[in-house]
Amino acid sequence: MSLIVVGSMAFDAIETPFGKVDKIVGGAATYVAYAAANFVKPVQQVSIVGYDFPTEEMEELKGRGVQLEGVEIIPDKKSFFWSGRYHEDMNSRDTLITDLNVLADFNPKVPDSYQDSEFLMLGNLAPAVQISVIKQMKKRPKLIAMDTMNFWMEIALPELQQLLTMVDVLMINDAEARQLTGQYSLVKAAKDILTMGPKYLVIKKGEHGALLFHGDSVFFAPALPLEDVFDPTGAGDTFAGGFMGYLAKTKDVSFDNMKTAIIVGSAMASFCVEKFGATRLKEINHQDIDARIRQFKELVNFDIELV
Amino acid sequence: MSLIVVGSMAFDAIETPFGKVDKIVGGAATYVAYAAANFVKPVQQVSIVGYDFPTEEMEELKGRGVQLEGVEIIPDKKSFFWSGRYHEDMNSRDTLITDLNVLADFNPKVPDSYQDSEFLMLGNLAPAVQISVIKQMKKRPKLIAMDTMNFWMEIALPELQQLLTMVDVLMINDAEARQLTGQYSLVKAAKDILTMGPKYLVIKKGEHGALLFHGDSVFFAPALPLEDVFDPTGAGDTFAGGFMGYLAKTKDVSFDNMKTAIIVGSAMASFCVEKFGATRLKEINHQDIDARIRQFKELVNFDIELV
Fold first, then answer.
1. Which of B76, B131, B77 is nearest to B104 (CA)?
2. Which residues, numbered 265 to 294 in chain B, qualify as contacts with chain A under a Cβ-Cβ cut-off of 8 Å?
3. Bridge partners (DSSP) listed for residue A192
């Protein structure tokens, strides 16, 4: 079983109350891949980078079972670069620089060797680009999940609405869910979104956890209470990687299994925020992940005899 | 088994995005009593009201097993009155009016008939007043829990610090935990607070749930995702009432049982916010409560075979 991951591979400059890095490897597809590779192999990457993207990072990914045939390397351009500064609460940030570079011309091609994949994760990109990937699949994957952002709701809403009819799972944050629907209540927003196409909706609330909606059912996964959130960059993509990686591993796309996948995603995200960039994701092993998932069980498990 | 509840009984004027009420019965002790009476009888109330507090409300409480011997009635003064307006997000509000009235002279007396009680809930009041209640108990209750607010941290910190050494459970919200410790991280704030006296700390996060800290252990209870939070007034006190009511009913003050009590408190609070004031709390029965607790189990229960 494999998982196709489409999205950016990039450099980030990040400033948090705890420190700063000038140039660290980032990008949605990078985080998704590092998280998912713990559960499913191969992860089949579709992305675009410039001449400056480190060979060692490519080797590191390959060593973890990430296939890079779908990653285009543009010899005379730079990789996508994002720079941001987090506020003290770590829930909000200012974008300082967005240099699209190679990403401006990203026209992803799904290699033939990826065509058998049954799981597809579309990282945040222009909706038209995400649509083009789905259309390239000769057989519709068993499960298509997507991320997006407020920017596309503002400048590409018709394409986004078309895309929503083509996917199974939408993963967005609380502010995006409110913007997409005009509903302040997340429960009402979820009801609206579930009429737009996706059968499953994940609303990410950062340090306040995540909600999974399906029909009239709802499931909640907390975020692990941490002493310090060191750097939230990539936490949402890492969450998506854990979620899709676990589903691809278990090949079970039922609501019950998605609950578990949400917990796995939350566990992976809780590692991601402990160090800058994907640093922590490269350090952990299966024992660490199992221990973290046990912590989530402890965090929410309770017994009751009804009153 | 009984539970002593100390706090205000009052009138509120409330404005939310959904409507307004000019004068509705409120007060911390009122909410605590309505919630706790579902689990423990008698609830032994200690409060103060003016000539204008409705006889029918007193009768309603009595009918639910709430003893009012400790409620002083001042014949020539008005009851405490609070008026506030909620913002659209319902997590923040502006206080418009605070008329202390009888509460300015509140010097609570614990009746002899309450002295056997093993559970004591101190609603938000001046720390010196809360201390005076503890000192009146001839035998220290098995479990003393308290609420407080930012105002007392600003004008009565020494008394508050003394009080903290005398109680078992502190229940405050996230902003108050941060203010009390100067720590932004709630995990760090909790560590600090657990050195100040209380062995158990509950941090209420409104729509984002509640955390229970004890030693190095932490438990998280979500808030139920609701279509509309109609009126959050009293939700924290209702939470406290469910929590203490359940502990008094089960007579078990272990950490494991407190986890369950936090869920019960969250369930009660989820009813409270559905209508203005304590309206909804007066309508529900044990079947409603059981069904709501089942919803909480559904909301967080997941299965996993570790990876």
1. B77
2. 286, 289-290, 293-294
3. none
Distance CA A229, CA A17 (A): 10
- Read off φ and ψ for residue B246, nearest 5 degrees: -65, -40
* Contact at CB, B39 and A307, closer than 8 angstroms: yes
Find, among B33, B10, B24, the residue nearest to B268 by Cα. Answer: B33
CATH number of domain containing A64: 3.40.1190.20
Kindly report, residue by residue over A258-306, the tens digit of the pLDDT: 999 999 999 999 999 999 999 999 999 999 999 999 999 999 988 876 6
Contact A164, A170 (CB under 8 A): yes
pLDDT tens per residue, range B141-175: 999 999 999 999 999 999 999 999 999 999 999 99
CB A268 within 8 A of CB A241: yes
- Is residue B243, in this structure, part of any structural domain at all? yes
Residue A37 and residue A147 in contact, taking contact as beta carbons nearer than 8 Å: no
Q: Give the span between the Cα atoms of A197 and A166, in whole angstroms.
A: 7
pTM given for the model = 0.94
**In this predicted complex, what is the ipTM?**
0.91
| Confidence tier at B89 by pLDDT (50, 70, 90) | confident
User: Do strands A119-122 and A143-147 pair parallel, antiparallel, or not at all (unpaired)?
Assistant: parallel
Q: Which of these, B53, B32, B54, lies nearest to B43 by C-alpha position?
A: B32
For residue A284, give Cα distances in angstroms to A236, A289, B97: 18, 7, 54
Tokens coding B213: 């800290």
Answer whether residue B20 is part of any domain: yes
Question: Which residue is listed with tokens 């609603």?
Answer: B123
From the list B220, B229, B289, the residue facing A299 with the nearest CB is: B220
Query: Considering only CA atoms, which of B188, B292, B101 is closest in space to residue A228?
Result: B188
Q: Which domain holds residue A268?
A: 3-300
Nearest CA in chain B to A298: B219
Instruction: Answer for the pair A26, A51: CB distance below 8 angstroms, yes or no.
Output: no
Tell me the chain B residues in contact with residue A209 when contact means C-beta distances shorter than 8 Å.
Answer: 208-209, 222
d(CA A28, CA A272): 13
Domain count, chain A: 1
Considering the domain boundaries, does residue A241 fall inside one? yes
Structural contact between residues A125 and A8, judged by C-beta atoms closer than 8 angstroms = yes
C-beta atoms of B302 and A89 within 8 A: no
In a domain, B218, yes or no: yes
